[in-house]
Amino acid sequence: MSERETDRLTELAKRRGFFTGTAAAYGGVAGFYTYGPQGAALKDNLEGAWRDRFVTREGHMEIDAPTVMPEAVFEASGHLETFNDMLVECAECGESHRADHLVEDHPDSDVEDAEALPNAEVADLIAEFGITCPACGAPLADEPVEDFNLMFATNIGPGDSSPGYLRPETAQGIFVEFPQFAEYARNQLPFGVAQIGRAYRNEISPRKGLLRLRELTQAELEHFVDPEDDEAPIDRVADVVLPLYSVPQQKADDGELQELTVREAVEEGVVESDWIAFYLGLSKRWYARAGVDMDRFRYRQHLPGELSHYASDCWDAESEIDGGWHELTGFAYRGSYDIDKHAEYSDEDYTVFKQYDEPITVERPTVDPDMSYLGPEFGEHTGFTIEESTESGEHVRPHIVEPSFGVDRLVYTVLAHAYSQDEVDGEERTYLSLPAAVAPTTVGVFPLMDRDGLNDRAYEVARTLRDAGLAVTYDDSGAIGRRYRRQDEVGTPFCVTVDYDTLEDDTVTVRERDSTAQKRVPVPELPDTIGALRDDDRSFEDL
Ligand code: GAP
After folding, report:
1. Are strands 443-447 and 494-498 parallel, antiparallel or unpaired?
2. CATH number of the domain bearing residue 412
3. Whose CA is nearest to atom 11 of ligand 1?
4. Residues 496, 472 contacting (CB under 8 angstroms)
5. Is residue 524 in some structural domain?
6. Looking at residue 52, what DSSP letter applies?
7. Are residues 303 and 266 in the same domain?
8. Do 425 and 538 lie in a common domain?
9. Most buried in the list 63, 80, 249, 317, measured by CB within 10 Å?
């Protein structure tokens, strides 16, 4: 997609109600976006599709935790100390920049992972490349590079005795309550806890629309597994082909994408954890259905310096927009880091009691020293006994496998990849080729003319479709061609036109967005037909 197309997407998003910068009336505020009616519906549909795939169909639990948490939570989780980005501030104009990004983006630089370098080294590179402030052009050579914590701080209640933070990831709301969820899961590993909700990051310079927000939506699954006993159900996704960009390939001069099935990726050790490989497979199928172009999609492994403080391995699902790759989802192997930390900092028991299949008998030596003999003869007179006991299980700390999806980046990717142009009846047309299952509106209903009873009949048809639970837009203004274009631009997959034949034979025209092909369908069959088309149970060609 060229730069111009992205600009057009932003323009379309604003004009047609997908998203727009927040508080423009007051000069706007970077990193905050408001979803309009189309965008909110698209986002909602994507969240619903995520819930269906990663929660309901996997039998996981979903929770809803607060977005503000006390400081102790983030002290334990490590965010207070380590959730930092590298900040360099221009002394001339006061603008703040991500120092690592400036270094990585400089044309003379071959540094791919500046985040992994010490601050002083990044400052040296800024000086060496003669990097200047992107806002005003002043040299940044003498400016220090400092850690900037990305969490938004607040106070809980009056005064400042109880500091709190807006959560930077939804995950901590799950980890901190782990003992309860383990109980709800009857201490049976593996089990998953999911959450869809807002997270907050005070990004240093958010400039990429929905791709870098200060208030964002995450859909996260924390899958708690027994590292000794639980194997991922690889068979379910074994044949899914993954486009993998591993660390060795990224480091090699001629490194390239490897197309491996999930099974091959595990057997060849390219993806170390079978659980991560399982989620890569599951998510690839899901992304394709959600409308991500699979020719502009890959899984990239984190370079060692890129890993978050909690992760031992991480693969990102990335999509290509404007020739650049953007992280959509992180699939992290968090080990037991988070629950170890909460166990260490709190008084709770963050273990699961793992019941043995059969109780086992264990022998333990016990020491019963006879104090009157203590001294040189201690060894001879100490009473050692072997005691037998029966144990029915043990306390274990599960490991955490975390697919963490960014919903806003998904919305943006799906829109960017759906943006299409062609020519219809000699006129250029813009349309969003969104999958019917996620499109904001499933069907537009139009009367051919706003008279002769066509409008009343069309209104009835719209009502019937709405009663069937379909997302319907009714439009009776302007020429029919213009009404089609309006729906094409917001990605409505089907349009129904009520015309004079409808009054005679009770059929309507159904037009399909991408092909613009039309078919006649009896009105009584319409709700089921449109529903089946939306759910991919029928194809338009087969009507
Ligand atoms: N719990 C793990 C976690 O938060 P992350 O990689 O920092 O991992 C997960 O974030 C996802 O959240 C990313 O893959 C991305 O899609 C989304 N995300 C993170 N920061 C974002 C931002 N500033 N704006 C929009 N989306 C963001």
Report:
1. parallel
2. 3.30.930.10
3. 406
4. no
5. yes
6. I
7. yes
8. no
9. 317
Domain-embedded: residue 369: no
Report the distance separating Cα 133 and Cα 138, nearest Å. 5
Residue pLDDT, tens place only, 116-170 = 899 999 999 999 999 999 999 999 999 999 999 999 999 999 999 999 999 999 9
Give me the sign of the Cα torsion angle 33, 38, 42, 47.
Answer: positive
Mind listing the pLDDT tens digit for each residue in 270-306?
Answer: 999 999 999 999 999 999 999 999 999 999 999 988 8
pLDDT (0 to 100) of residue 386: 86
Domain span at residue 511 reads 441-542
Separation of 32 CA from ligand 1 center, angstroms? Answer: 15
Give the nearest ligand 1 atom to 201 CA.
Answer: 23
Using a 6 Å cutoff on CB, does residue 341 contact ligand 1?
no
Number of domains, the chain: 2
CB of 100 closer than 6 A to ligand 1?
no
Q: For 322-346, what is each residue's pLDDT tens digit?
A: 998 999 999 999 999 999 999 999 9
Residue ranges of the alpha helices (H) in 364-403?
Answer: 378-381
Please provide residue 520's backbone torsions phi and psi, each rounded to the nearest 5 degrees: -100, 135
Nearest CA to ligand 1 atom 12: 406
Same domain, 328 and 204: yes
Instruction: Answer yes or no: do 414 and 479 share one domain.
Output: no
Cβ–ligand 1 contact at 317 (below 6 Å): no
In this structure, are 511 and 401 located in the same domain? Answer: no
Q: Which atom of ligand 1 is nearest to the CA of 171?
A: 1
